[in-house]
Each structure stands twice: as structure tokens, then as C-alpha cells.
Design a protein that fits this description.
By secondary structure, this protein is α/β, with parallel strands linked by helices. About 45% of the residues lie in helices and about 15% in strands. It has one domain: NAD(P)-binding Rossmann-like Domain (Rossmann fold). It is globular, with a radius of gyration of 20 Å. Bound molecules: 2'deoxy-thymidine-5'-diphospho-alpha-D-glucose.
Length: about 300
């Protein structure tokens, strides 16, 4: 991210993707030719208390973006049946492994695993994936979809497991572990994720899905203990709290298609990635303080009322 704001091609516009008119204006103002669609409500716990905003943003917002791209890129915009688009245009939809639901102790999600979402968040992402697929089949829109496992790294909002635990450690608060803490996630550094998305953008096939993952499975409890150890804090800070409803037990991604087609594998080892991430949070207390003030405080109090 460093230095990007000085690039002549960089423009920042804060726009709600549900706002059809504003999104259309962006396509016209900048003559957009490629979209990498990361915009989403992304936190499972929030989706459990407030599902509606996940549906309007993740499903309807995606449809607004698809429509804007389709009409801006169509060669014959007057012909609603035309499936011909400008050269070089591309819509990458960034999705998640959560659309596949939960795994047992064995196996991996592949691109052909059944879609079986368990939370309102996952259901909203699965719905948007299906819409993207439908725009490819029905209108021939040049789309590609990526499905990634859990990300970590700098600038992650402290509602997610890793930054929340680091923040609580530093603030001397308890670390709330849901249920028995034996749920498994497959962790990938955000830079590896971005590199994989860029490869799909450049070289992926239209209409295809690409799984992205780290082959780096950890139980939540092991991860929390690792953070405590790195920050030299006692394990007595761990507080087991009520489990998340519908909590997926295990995610694990088979990313062999990415390896086979683009020779992609993650560059970061988990050890190096976590060290850099913890170090980043230690060096940016002002970023964390700014981010956890205001609305975050009321979210935290409502979500973790039983945590000391
Ligand atoms: O798998 C990809 C997904 O990873 C993304 O699509 C989502 O946007 C992202 O939020 C993430 O979903 P998870 O639900 O896996 O991430 P989260 O950081 O919320 O939780 C990770 C695990 O840690 C999960 O099993 C729940 C548990 N957890 C989480 C929090 C915030 C706790 O035990 N305590 C907590 O306070």
C-alpha cells in the first residue's frame, strides 16, 4: 500500500456499492476497464446479529457492480441481448471459502465442493457468487471468482480473531475463545492473497473459480496461545466464552489449481508472517486506538459483555 497514493492512476472515492447512480458515475468518470470486487460486509458475528445489511451490501451491491460493468463494457449498449464486450475488460469477484460450509476432520474444499453456507455472512457471499456465475452464463460477462481462506496481516480490523487477540493482550484484557477453541482455520498472509488475486486477474479463465489457501491449519486455541507467547503474556488471560451459533468446525482449502495453473504458492511462512504482523500492531498503536474508538467500543461491549 505504501506509496500508492502518489501514483497518477490512483483515485480514492468512497461510495456505497448499493448506490446504483454513484457506481455508474464512477465507471463513466474513470472509464473503468477492470474491477476487483473486495467490497463486502465480512464479519460472521455481525451477520448473526444484523443479517440484513449483509444481504443488501453483499448480494444487491454485487448486482449493482455487475450491472454497471456490463452496461459500461457492452460494445452495443442498445442491444440487451448482445454478449460482446470491449477488449481487455475483466471483473474479479473476491469471495471466501466459507461458501463451502464446514469440513470434518479430513479433506479439503475444492472448486467443485458443494456450496453449503452456514452463517448469514456465508450465505450472502454464496448468493453473490451465484449471481456472478449467472452473469457469466446469461450475459457472457467476463468474470472470475476467487475463494480464499482466513487472512491475517497489517491493517486488519480488530473484530477478527488475530488483531482482536493482539489488541486485548496489549490492553491487558481477557482473550475470548469461542466454545472449546478446537475449531480449525487455514491462515494466509494478506500479501499472498493479493498476489494470488492479481494472478487470477491477469491469467485466470473467464467463468472459472479459483481456491486460494495457505495449507496452514491451526486450531483457534493454538493460535491464541501462540500470540500470548509472542507477547509474553500468561495463558490465564484466555477466557472460554459461549460458542458462535452455527460455528463452522473446520476450513481447509485445496489450492492445487492455483499451483498447477499459475505456479502460485504462498511466500510467507506462518512464523514470519505472524512475527511481522504482531510487530506491525506494536508499532502502530495510534492506528489501533483510532480504529477501536467510537462505534467499535459499542460493538465490543455488546458482543463480549461476559468478558472481563
Ligand atoms: O475463511 C475466510 C473468512 O475468514 C472470511 O470470509 C471472513 O470475512 C473472515 O471474517 C473470516 O471468518 P472467520 O469467522 O473464520 O474469522 P474470525 O476472525 O471471525 O474468527 C476466526 C475463528 O476464531 C473462528 O473459528 C471464530 C473464532 N473466534 C473469533 C473471535 C472474533 C473466537 O474464538 N473468538 C473471537 O473473539
Amino acid at each position: 500500500m505504501d506509496g500508492i497514493t502518489e501514483d497518477a492512476l490512483y483515485h480514492f472515492e468512497k461510495v456505497d456499492i448499493r448506490d446504483r447512480e454513484a457506481v455508474r458515475r464512477l465507471f463513466e468518470t474513470y472509464d473503468v476497464t477492470e474491477v476487483v470486487h473486495f467490497a463486502a460486509e465480512s464479519h460472521v458475528d455481525r451477520s448473526i446479529t444484523e443479517p440484513e445489511v449483509f444481504l443488501t451490501t453483499n448480494v444487491l451491491g454485487t448486482q449493482v457492480l455487475l450491472d454497471a460493468a456490463m452496461w459500461h463494457w457492452k460494445l452495443d449498449a442498445k442491444n440487451k441481448h448482445s454478449r460482446h464486450y470491449r477488449e481487455g475488460v475483466c471483473f474479479v469477484h473476491v469471495s471466501t471459502d466459507e461458501v463451502y460450509g464446514s469440513l470434518g476432520a479430513e479433506g479439503f474444499f475444492t472448486e467443485t465442493s458443494p456450496i453449503a453456507p452456514n452463517s448469514p455472512y456465508a450465505a450472502s457471499k454464496a448468493s453473490s457468487d451465484l449471481l456472478v456465475r449467472a452473469y457469466y452464463e446469461t450475459y457472457g460477462l467476463p468474470v472470475k471468482t476467487t475463494r480464499c481462506s482466513n487472512n491475517y496481516g497489517p491493517y486488519q480490523f480488530p473484530e477478527k480473531l488475530i488483531p482482536l487477540m493482539i489488541h486485548n493482550c496489549l490492553a491487558g484484557k481477557s482473550l475470548p475463545v469461542y466454545g472449546d477453541g478446537q475449531q480449525i482455520r487455514d491462515w494466509l498472509h494478506v500479501n499472498d492473497h493479493c498476489e494470488a488475486i492479481d494472478l487470477v486477474r491477469q491469467r485466470g479463465r473467464f467463468g472459472d473459480v479459483y481456491n486460494i489457501g495457505g495449507h496452514n491449519e491451526k486450531t483457534n486455541l493454538a493460535l491464541v496461545k501462540l500470540i500470548l507467547q509472542k507477547l509474553d503474556r500468561p495463558e490465564t488471560l484466555i477466557q472460554f466464552v459461549q460458542d458462535r451459533p452455527g460455528h463452522d468446525r473446520r476450513y481447509a482449502i485445496d489450492a492445487s489449481k492455483m499451483a498447477r495453473e499459475f505456479d502460485w504458492t504462498p511466500r510467507y511462512s506462518f512464523e514470519k508472517g505472524m512475527e511481522e504482523t504482531i510487530d506491525w500492531y506494536l508499532r502502530h498503536p495510534e492506528w489501533v486506538e483510532r480504529i477501536v474508538s467510537g462505534a467499535y467500543q459499542s460493538y465490543y461491549e455488546a458482543m463480549y459483555s461476559s468478558v472481563e
